[in-house]
Amino acid sequence: MLPLSTNKYAQGAAEHAAPQHRLPAWLRLLRPHQWLKNGFVLIGLLFAHAWDQPNLVLKAIAATTAFCLLSSAVYVFNDLIDREQDRLHPQKRYRPLASGTIGAPAALALLVVCLIFACDIVVRVVGHAYWVFLAYLCVNVAYTLKLKHVVILDAFLIAAGFMLRLFAGTVAIGIPPSQWLIICGLMLTLFLGFAKRRAELNAMYTDAGAHMHRRVLEHYSPALLDQFITITVACTVLSYSLYTVSDNTIALHGRHLWITMPFVLYGMFRYLYLLHRRGGGGDAAEAFFTDRHLQVTVLGWLTCIVALLEGAV
Fold first, then answer.
1. The domain 13-150: what is its CATH number?
2. Which residue of 89, 156, 281, 308 could cross-link 275, Cys pair, CB 3.0 to 4.6 Å?
3. What is the pTM assigned to this prediction?
4. How many CB atoms lie within 10 A of CB 244?
């Protein structure tokens, strides 16, 4: 049984979800709170010192907008495919398609509109590395239809979605991606993927329909997922630490980027705390919106990064 504090976290998540239920059904179907994940697109712009180049800033904003539309199209597609299963899930049954608030034809029309506008933005504004956006769609379609049931590969595909966002903010707008950025990003996103599965496994003890809804959980165990999470957390922290003190980083950003390490450590440890003691960790966007510690940590890290990069001392 989960600790009593889990109920407090669930209450916080419910308070975050309540305003969403007041949104129009078509907007809830797009899951706008998940657009926070598309902030990964802007990381390349930040670490390339390119925020003072209007052309790159415009392309980065366009790529982020395109990913918001593409990710919403993916969510609609996922809800269309899984609507029968979602009706058996304690929380997901309230989604617009599962609850019948929106019909399949209207959802399909909304999906097509998102794809059209996303493609238009990519072609007219971004204008480069179309494969990144196409790969994101292909990965998520394959994940929804089949691969989310394949143990371990499912977490790698979740990570792939984040990594393609990183590539959209680097190679797609003309910024060469740092090897350290790719390694650290991969470790962090794998951690988020395995943490998602661990949270779903936790939910099996409180939600009767959770196990039925996610068949891949039959192949995981708490001990196995905890090992995966421990490895990816350690690799994330280590790779970020090495990045801050590498010769190339010091030459480009100055020698004091290591000062941001406490924010990274605290953020990772706080996420683990939410996962194991507060019933969270299944959704990175929800965790951010419902936990003030994470909000302060991320904003503190971002403020410190901008100040250090701007000074480059």
1. 1.10.357
2. 281
3. 0.85
4. 19
